[in-house]
Amino acid sequence: MTAPASPTPSKPLSQDELKAQVGRAALAYVARGEIVGVGTGSTVNKFIDALATIKDEIKGAVSSSVASTERLRALGISVFDSNEVEELSVYIDGADEIDHRGFMVKGGGAALTREKIVAAQSRKFVCIADASKLVEVLGAFPLPVEVIPMAARRVMRQFAAMGGIAQVREKDGLPLVTDNGQHIVDVTGLKITDPLAFESTVSQWPGVVTVGVFAHQKADVCLLGTSEGVKTME
Ligand code: 5RP
Hints:
Belongs to the ribose 5-phosphate isomerase family. By secondary structure, the protein is of the alpha/beta class. It contains 6 helices and 16 strands. A 7-stranded mixed β-sheet has the order 3-2-1-4-7-15-16, sandwiched between helices. The chain has a 4-stranded antiparallel β-sheet with strand order 9-12-8-13. Strands 5-6-14 form a 3-stranded antiparallel β-sheet, covered by helices on one side. The longest helix has 11 residues, at 15-25. The structure holds ribulose-5-phosphate. Ribulose-5-phosphate binds at residues 39-43, 93-96, 106-112, 115.
């Protein structure tokens, strides 16, 4: 991916405005008459709102979470089960971190497993994010890993052996339960310099459902929201 050219200074936009900006920009990648893959999160919510303005021009969406499904349906967009659709031309989703090669950390919204599934069935991954998500090396954002609950402690020890500090994500004082009925372990203290190898290794640990490194399903295009406008990295 090529870094955006240096911008000319202008009035800073709020993070919410930056998200809305890239949400709207992503409409350019939606093939009219087709089904679009839709991710999860606050940036994607802006995209869903924008998608509603062209809902009569698309067949519908395959969604990566219960939350996105509810938002899509509330806005009158049909949602298809991923098994009903063989291939999608595009998947639009946010990221917690993205590097210059398009490798990402995802799963801050706990939807990483379904996100990876929909990304895998899509020909193009368009990442939408505000510019704060662009990093040199992945790992500053706590890495989400969806695990089968009985494997959580073992997986946490494996991360500790790599120098990471892992904890089970909680909601209202209890382990958070994902849309798939599993738990999330968040890992800090890692520098993920080889995302492809890291993803392959951790994915093989018993009890790991999905690791939040998206290297094998990386972004083909990234639309970065900045106060100077949307920068496209591809
Ligand atoms: C959800 C995700 C989101 O794409 C990621 O957390 C970014 O979210 P936001 O747009 O709210 O910053 O991976 O599982």
